[in-house]
Design brief:
The chain has about 190 residues and is an alpha/beta fold. It has a seven-stranded mixed sheet with strand order 1-2-5-4-6-3-7. β4 and β5 form a beta hairpin. α3 crosses α6. The longest helix has 21 residues. About 40% of the residues are buried.
């Protein structure tokens, strides 16, 4: 079933799978320092990398990190992606603290869904990218956005992030693959009578 056919704009997509990749919802506690609780319109998908190369620093580990520090840090994002699963840390329609721009009117925190891509040394980075591309495409379709609305953390703060994608000159490749995935989802929607 295609979820975007049955929801109103800017409410949480309620994803449980992206293809065969499980999406595990484990939201940060309401009222915690890491969860601003601000509802907003979604204008961007903001891509990050965790910059944590340690073995075991996968999506589950980052989910645990967020939950452990929720009461003490203004740090949060919506999805954490690795090579075998995705954690959903905040509802899509809530602002988060991921783009280093506070809650500025047209900023990434207030208007963007933050996606963190894991770069742990014992993970399959290429599969993590693939999973992140599929998630980004699905969210673009869910919220009526286009590939031009996929941003880097760098676009809001100047920080070189997602560092590996930028430093290896692969950002445009990432966007091209997201665009292909969007087209495939659109064709799937047509085939299912959408």
């Amino acid at each position: 079933m295609l979820l975007w056919l049955f929801k109103t704009p800017d409410e949480d997509a309620g994803l449980t799978y992206i293809g065969d990749i499980p999406v595990i919802s484990n939201f940060l506690p309401e009222g915690s320092a890491s969860r601003p609780g601000v509802k907003r319109d979604i204008k961007y998908i903001v891509i990050h990398e965790t910059d944590n190369f340690s073995a075991g620093a996968d999506a589950a580990a980052h989910n645990k990190f967020l939950l452990t520090n929720a009461d003490t840090q203004e740090l949060s994002w919506h999805y954490t992606v690795d090579d075998h699963e995705i954690y959903h840390n905040l509802p899509d329609d809530e602002a988060a603290y991921h783009a280093s721009d506070h809650l500025e009117k047209n900023g990434g925190n207030l208007n963007g869904i933050g996606i963190e891509l894991c770069v742990n040394e014992d993970g399959d980075y290429e599969q993590t990218l693939r999973n992140g591309e599929l998630l980004a495409a699905t969210l673009l379709r869910e919220y009526g956005l286009s590939v031009k609305d996929v941003k880097k953390h760098q676009d809001f703060s100047g920080k070189v992030c997602p560092a590996r994608l930028i430093e290896n000159g692969r950002w445009d490749e990432f966007l091209d693959r997201v665009a292909r995935d969007c087209q495939a989802l659109k064709e799937q929607e047509k085939q299912q009578g959408g």
